[in-house]
Design goal:
By secondary structure, the chain is of the alpha/beta class. It has two domains: about 210 residues, no CATH class; about 325 residues, Alkaline Phosphatase, subunit A, CATH 3.40.720.10. It has 29 helices and 16 strands. A hairpin with a 2-residue loop joins strand 4 and strand 5. The longest helix is centred in the N-terminal third of the chain and has 29 residues. It is globular, with a radius of gyration of 28 Å.
Length: about 725
């Protein structure tokens, strides 16, 4: 008798257990490879590929073990779907951030900013996602496979003891090997005290970065070995033998007394700043003493907007005042807020415990911020931004820097309605009387600060400012691509804002008493798309974000009483603005305590690296490039090119990089430990304030209607 069952009645073969055990590890590895393929700032075949593979194995094994501890089976399966989909979403969000903002962000930071982004930039966010659909589609493949082949890929039953032990051993070995390699490699600082999500993803992958973020959120980021970092730096000032010996821009600070009973970190800070060279005063010290100051950070501005025909005001102001031929706005990896922090404080923007140093500084004592310096002299100090006043927590940071701050939602008039971005010209028109009238009528000097928004991406013709000036831009650049035309059009709003501002100053007869200073927050990186780098078209330079030339920009510094232009060839960047203006206005400040330096100080030698020398630090995706009076260092090629006629010692590059490492470490520590309050005996720190309460109080203060106000909340 034939007892064999018909083929169609035979039970299906049981799924192979190894498929479900290895699924998450394979899926994570696939995602890491996908990210490296699409992110052209990461060298695919490098040591970081090994680090990434090891830490991906760690995370994949850990997720598999944790899921196999879950009961019942249906809950385990449901959690598997959730984990796979959530990771895919995180991957896509991080890629969108990197490809659009040119940086990876931490989980905590993205969670804090998500609400503001979706409320203020929802349309832009949709456009960003739409342009990156190919990556998003490919990233969904593991999740789709899990849905289609769930019988084979889902963990059906709990793992036995031998399988669990094997996974655990694999996890431990991969973690130990990866950690040892990272802690002994040349990027040890990225893995420890210099950790930032952007640098970490390039080094250890997204899997390793998520693990580090969780670890450091619980236990804190390791403290930087400040003394070790500063060891070997020559910090003696060099007096130029043929020049008149001026005083130094420094204050009477007893660093030795400050170190008595201080913590080891504070003592390290004291030792560094005590020995650091101060910059020397010079022929330009006090040139603008007693004058008014208008400081502008222009959204996504670039020097290629300026032309004598299309932007005559910009052309005039950049050619009649100080003319900076070697000025840069670095890509600090923090979008607008990093560039703005550098402009306003003279300190390198860093991350402090996974948060922006600008935000952390809102409870610090910041005496050298220009708002605080001028307010102490009796100036009327006002700050304006024609976007949501709470965006990037400006309602907390800017008042702490010494300003009465007004944005959209707490007193700044805008009439654009749903049309975005708002008008820079209108912002100036609606605020200029706030400070000009008081100066003309009773002599109250003023310092006004503007953060513009009209130049904000994206620059299609749906952009309100691009549409507003479309005809002019297309007529001036008929053969340019649409993104370039749209960018030029949007930035014409800055031209008209400055034109109105200068006209009002001249009508009031106070242009000779007023200094205007303007630069960008960052270069217009949104012109760099997945397919085309339109910034190359705009600039006419065939470069990438790995090259120094990408970050060259304009510093506008003008006063109505300047009879002849002053050409400045010294290499400088945005962190040099505060110390340079402080010297020009004859303000009392300590140049040792800032990251930047007075551009006009001459106490340095072109060939000898000291902390008083000019240095432009340019963080790029492949490392720090830099410029000094001796030459340029390109991180992309790891080559130093000396300037003509300049010869340096073989150790020059290493010593400059030591100075840069120290600048970063101490810039972070100054904010993290509220060092200015300690060193300068500042007032007691204010108690923490619930942000929600602060916002409500500010809103209540401005809800009384006036005939001229049209508030947007």
């Amino acid at each position: 008798m034939n007892t064999a069952q018909p083929t169609h009645l035979q039970p299906p073969k049981p799924p192979k257990k190894w498929l479900s055990v290895s699924f998450f590890t394979v899926a994570l590895l696939y995602h890491e490879v996908l990210l490296r393929l699409f992110d052209n700032t990461i060298s695919f075949f490098s040591i970081s590929l090994l680090y990434t593979t090891l830490f991906t194995i760690v995370l994949g094994a850990l997720v598999t073990l944790l899921l196999h501890l879950v009961r019942p089976d249906k809950l385990r399966a449901a959690l598997s779907y959730v984990v796979c989909f959530a990771w895919t979403v995180l991957l896509c969000v991080e890629y969108c951030c990197k490809s659009y903002f040119k940086t990876y962000f931490g989980l905590g930071y993205m969670a804090n900013m998500a609400g503001q982004v979706m409320s203020d930039f929802a349309a832009t966010a949709v456009e960003v996602v739409f342009d990156r659909l190919p990556f998003i589609g490919l990233s969904l493949i593991p999740f789709v496979c899990l849905l289609l082949f769930r019988r084979h890929l889902l963990p059906q039953k709990r793992l036995g003891k031998p399988a669990c032990i094997t996974l655990l051993v694999l996890l431990v070995l991969a973690q130990v090997l990866g950690s040892v390699l990272c802690l002994t490699g040349r990027q040890k600082d990225t893995y420890t005290y210099n950790y930032t999500p952007d640098r970490a993803v390039a080094m250890v992958g997204l899997s390793g970065t998520v693990r580090l973020e969780v670890q450091y959120a619980i236990f804190g980021i390791p403290e930087a070995p400040l003394d070790d970092i500063a060891e070997g730096i020559d910090i003696d000032a060099v007096d130029h033998p043929t020049l008149e010996q001026y005083e130094y821009n420094k204050m009477d600070i007893d660093f030795t007394a400050l170190s008595e009973g201080a913590s080891s970190t504070t003592a390290s800070l004291n030792r560094y700043f005590a020995g650091k060279a101060a910059t020397q005063q010079n022929d330009y010290t006090g040139l603008f003493e007693g004058k008014n100051l208008i400081l502008i950070t222009a959204e996504a501005f670039s020097p290629y907007v300026i032309s004598e025909e299309l932007t005559p005001t910009l052309y005039r102001l950049t050619h009649e005042g100080f003319v900076f031929n070697n000025f840069y706005q670095p890509g600090w990896g923090q979008s607008t807020t990093g560039g703005e922090f550098a402009v306003m404080t003279g300190i390198i923007p860093t991350w402090v415990n996974n948060n922006l140093s600008f935000y952390v500084s809102h409870r610090d004592y910041m005496p050298f911020a220009l708002g605080n310096q001028f307010r102490a002299l009796g100036y009327n100090t006002l700050a304006y931004h024609n976007n949501s006043y709470t965006y990037y927590n400006r309602h907390l940071t800017h008042p702490n820097l010494g300003y009465d701050f007004y944005g959209v939602g707490n007193g700044l008039l805008v009439t654009g309605g749903s049309d975005w971005p708002y008008s820079d010209e209108e912002m100036v028109m609606n605020t200029v009387d706030d400070y000009i009238t008081a100066y003309v009528e009773d002599g109250t000097p003023f310092h006004a600060y503007y953060m513009t928004v009209s130049g904000h991406a994206n620059w299609g013709w749906g952009n309100a400012m691009s549409a507003k000036h479309r005809e002019e831009a297309v007529a001036a650049y008929p053969n340019a691509s649409q993104p370039v035309q749209g960018y030029i059009a949007a930035n014409l709003e800055v031209e008209y804002a400055l034109r109105y501002l200068v006209e009002r100053l001249e009508e009031a007869g106070i242009a000779d008493d007023t200094v205007i200073c303007m630069t960008a927050d960052h270069y217009p990186y949104a012109l760099v798309t997945e397919e085309v780098d339109y910034y190359c078209e705009l600039s006419g330079i065939n470069d990438t974000e790995n090259n120094i030339s990408r970050y060259q920009n304009t510093l506008l510094l003008w006063c109505g009483d300047m009879e002849t232009p002053v050409v400045v060839d010294t290499p400088c960047s945005t962190i040099d603005i505060v110390p340079t203006l402080s010297n020009l206005f004859g303000l009392e400040y300590d140049s040792r305590l800032l990251s930047g330096r007075d551009v006009f100080s001459l106490n340095y030698s072109a060939t000898y690296p000291t902390t008083s020398m000019p240095i432009v630090i340019l963080p790029t995706p492949v490392g720090n490039s830099w410029i000094t009076p001796a030459g340029t260092y390109e991180a992309a090629t790891r080559t130093f090119t000396p300037n003509p006629g300049v010869a340096v010692h073989d150790t020059y590059v290493a010593r400059v990089e030591s100075i840069i490492d120290a600048k970063y470490a101490y810039a972070r520590a100054v904010i993290q430990y509220d060092y200015y309050r300690l060193a300068l005996n500042g007032p007691e720190a204010p108690p923490p304030v619930e942000e929600e309460v602060l916002v409500e109080e500010q809103v209540e203060e401005i809800t009384e209607p006036t005939q001229q106000q049209n508030l947007w909340f």
